[in-house]
């Protein structure tokens, strides 16, 4: 009887694994635990009052659009608002090429369903976003793993791959303040990448949830904007954005800006997945953003997260228990930094000791489709305040000393 359902699991779903992060998040709800594990926004900055006002507005002004079934493509005024929002970045695409999704995670899922056959080659940065690997588990791609450095994707390595005749279904890239490492693709690499896409007919999936969260410097030009500047329309780059890190992940509102050739297929796919993204969330997002919330709120996020990033860098710089040779990234934005221990160290073993010290992080192996990175780990700096960050890094030091 026990096997009634389990014997019938489809072949593609047999290899599914639970996300280590989501499992860890359950552990880290204890009040004494300091968690650098999740990619959680700072809860004290959630714009709850503004969203409550937007919700009241939506229900009063547009009860049908808020409560009724809606178009699969998304709530029209929100699509237009998103088209204007990304248009400021140079992603000038007609509103009918902007689709609203249930977070960018759904965009990743849809693209996997649409573009990946079992065994199909998909080029990814290594390490890369764990949620993308999870989204594509049942599609069973063959990952072509490309190295990254402080300037993001190693475009030479990609060019060598393409020149050797390999034709990935697409390249997946988190172009700004990458999850998990915090690195950003350098401007000259951006241009080269889009040129390569055109030369080798390489589709690119650009996932950009963090681009607005820069702490000094300026907004990087999305690959999608470079694509449009070069080709007059979105041609090689599909662009994914989201309100999760800018307002609240609970809204589950994101978007895809897609080349015209993909739009209809994405819509047909979404019809079967969820009919449409929740009307209520879309209407709340629209009324909140129409009233300028993003422009008011993003500077608050930048100020707070910038301080926290600095607090974590300072704590790491002064932590004496880090083994000689330990390195970490110094991200100009986003929510994460990436720590590399000496080659012989194991971050999963360290995590077990760290949890005993009441501090959590994500071991880096999770983000490596090829299973490397045992000596690396991801630290989130957006969720905890500076005193907890200092204390959490001290606890990691204590866990390292247990080992020594
Ligand atoms: C790179 C990346 N892509 C996508 C997502 C998913 O975001 P959303 O909440 O919009 O689904 C995340 C969330 O952490 C992320 O880091």
Please state how the strands of the largest beta sheet are arranged side by side. Answer: 2-9-8-7-6-3-4-5
Number of domains: 2
> Which CATH class of the largest domain?
Alpha Beta
Ligands in the model, by name, code or SMILES, are: pyridoxal-5'-phosphate
Enter the CATH topology name of the largest domain.
Aspartate Aminotransferase, domain 2
User: For the report, how would you describe the main beta sheet?
Assistant: 8 strands, mixed
* Portion of residues within helices: 40-55%
Main structural class: alpha/beta
* Secondary-structure element string: HHEHHHEHEHEEHEHEHEEHHHEEHEEEH
Percent of residues in β-strands: 5-15%
* Unreliable segments of 5+ consecutive residues: none
Radius of gyration: 21 Å
- The number of helical segments is 15
Provide the residue-averaged pLDDT: 95
CATH superfamily of the largest domain: Type I PLP-dependent aspartate aminotransferase-like (Major domain)
What's the shape? Answer: globular
Q: Roughly how many Å apart are the termini?
A: 50 Å
Overall CATH architecture of the largest domain: 3-Layer(aba) Sandwich
DSSP summary, beta strand count: 14
């Amino acid at each position: 009887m026990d096997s009634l359902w389990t014997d019938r699991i489809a072949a593609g779903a047999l290899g599914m694994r639970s996300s280590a992060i989501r499992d860890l998040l359950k552990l880290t709800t204890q009040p004494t635990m300091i968690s650098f594990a999740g990619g959680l926004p700072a809860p004290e900055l959630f714009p709850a009052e503004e969203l409550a006002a937007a919700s009241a507005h939506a229900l009063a002004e547009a009860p049908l659009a808020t409560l009724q079934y809606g178009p699969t493509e998304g709530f029209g005024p929100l699509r237009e608002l998103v088209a204007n929002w990304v248009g400021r970045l140079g992603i000038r695409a007609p509103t009918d090429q902007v689709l609203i999704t249930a977070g960018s995670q759904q965009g990743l899922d849809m693209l996997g369903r649409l573009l990946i056959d079992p065994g199909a080659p998909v080029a990814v940065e290594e390490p890369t976003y764990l949620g993308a690997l999870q989204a594509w588990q049942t599609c069973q791609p063959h990952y072509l793993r490309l190295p990254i450095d402080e300037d993001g994707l190693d475009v030479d390595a990609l060019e060598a791959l393409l020149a050797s005749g390999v034709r990935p279904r697409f390249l997946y890239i988190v172009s700004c303040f990458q999850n998990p490492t915090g690195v950003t693709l350098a401007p000259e690499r951006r241009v080269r990448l889009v040129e390569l896409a055109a030369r080798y007919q390489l589709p690119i999936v650009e996932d950009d949830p963090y681009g607005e969260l820069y702490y000094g410097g300026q907004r990087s030009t999305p690959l999608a904007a470079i694509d449009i500047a070069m080709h007059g329309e979105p041609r090689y780059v599909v662009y994914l954005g989201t309100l999760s890190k800018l307002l609240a992940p609970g809204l589950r509102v994101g978007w895809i800006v897609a080349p015209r050739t993909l739009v209809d297929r994405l819509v047909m796919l979404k019809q079967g997945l969820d009919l449409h993204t929740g009307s209520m969330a879309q209407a709340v997002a629209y009324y909140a953003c129409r009233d300028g919330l993003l422009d008011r709120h993003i500077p608050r996020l930048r100020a707070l997260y910038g301080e926290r990033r600095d607090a974590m860098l300072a704590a790491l710089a002064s932590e004496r228990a880090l083994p000689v040779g330990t390195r970490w990234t110094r991200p100009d934005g986003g929510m994460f930094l990436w720590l590399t221990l000496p080659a012989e160290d194991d971050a999963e073993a360290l995590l077990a000791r760290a949890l005993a010290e009441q501090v959590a992080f994500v071991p880096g192996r999770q983000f490596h489709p090829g299973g490397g990175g045992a000596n690396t780990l991801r630290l989130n700096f957006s969720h905890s305040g500076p005193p907890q960050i200092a204390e959490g890094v001290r606890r990691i030091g204590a866990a390292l000393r247990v080992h020594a």
